[in-house]
Amino acid sequence: MANRKRDNSFVTPEHGDNFVSDPQDNRFFKVILSSIADGVFTVSKDRRITSFNPAAERITGVPASMALGKKCYEVFHSNICENNCLLERTLETGEEAIDVAVQILNNSGRRIPISISTAVLRDDDGQVLGAVETFRDLSAIEVLRKDLERNYSFEDIISKSPTMMKLFGILPDVAESESTVLIQGASGSGKELFARAVHNLSPRKNKPYVVINCGTLPTTLFESELFGYVKGAFTDAKKDKPGKISLAEGGTVFFDEIGDLPLPTQVKLLRLLQQHEYEPVGGLGSVRANIRVVAATNRDLKRMVSKGRFREDLYFRLAVIRFEIPPLKERREDIPYLVDHFIRRFNARKGKNLIGVSPKAMEVLMRYNYPGNVRELENAIEYGYAVCRGRIIEFEHLPQELQSVTSQPIPEPVELHDLHPVQRHVSEEIAIREALKRRKGNRTQASRDLGIDRTTLWRKMRLYGIQIPKND
Questions:
Q1: pTM of the model
Q2: Residues near 104 by Cβ (< 8 Å), separated by ≥ 6?
Q3: Which of 172, 222, 195 lies closest to 292 in space, CA to CA?
Q4: Residue predicted with more confidence, 381 or 152
């Protein structure tokens, strides 16, 4: 290979096997790539590294002098090098990769999360010269995510609401007890997550967790489904069948939508709670039940008691410990956290790599009242995820019922510092890119639009790897 010039800022091949024929262009090429925060390296058609910028040295821990001339997989040790090399695929097909999340091992053997983008490099005649790969170190964002998950999540429950944080504080002690728990809240508010958390944090966590949906359980089948039956109890009882209580022995039974239980079946459940025993249908004796009971409802059981539609004695048996889960509209500060949580979940399940929602979309998400609560928010993000072809869920990707709220006032102010820090990071980058695009690259006008000074804008452009416009 030809001799290569080296300076303190960037190492790149000289004319002959490089990708920039004009010496002045080559000088600009080095300055630009030396100034950006993202790692960048180029390869020839046989995947030998032909340039390696300072950020690539910093992230990988490999000096450019050692990287040049080597095969990319000899320097860049990622978890996709052997079976699914993006750079190789780009060279073979011309297909670009954009922000694909992978992990690499740096020169010290430390695992580093990064995002990779690749593109083919061609000469003026369209002939392939090689390819370029850019990559961004996501370590700081991953640390931030873990801190956020530690501070604002409990089991699978995501929240920074003061009310929810109080519940988080007492949940371990409640779980340790054997007391019956009643969880009340609107549909979709996350009652089932709390029920699961009570079980997972309890001494019974390694025993069965059985869910019984009272709203779908026919009255005529209540006893047989719950308590089981013995052979010959009725015409079709050809053999003994254990009920759900038997299947939950030693564990937890979660009675979901318990407010839907008819009065006749409430009596039978009351005996189970009072005496901790039951009789299988057709059985000749009682069976002792070693279970913990957690119940949930979206109904006001106290009001139902006053109207004679729910037994008072059963209510007090259930409500030994009572949790009230606030609706999402009363804890809007959780929305950015939940949005980020859902996007990461969909990324993991469906293989796309979205990074967030646009500021306008977030504003709409913060305005909406969510009659369906957290479940409706999740559905809205899943809809946007499905129809979005880029990496950002925009306003037009939201369901129609959310788009219709743009004229309504925001119930609580949406300040950037109130957002989930990862979402704030994404939204800030998007806002800067949009301002620069709107002002055709004029940083003075863009900084005025953003309400920050020109120096701060320059620093943030460097932070996010936003290309500095040539004409300003």
A1: 0.61
A2: 59, 60, 76, 77, 78, 79, 111, 112, 114, 135
A3: 195
A4: 381
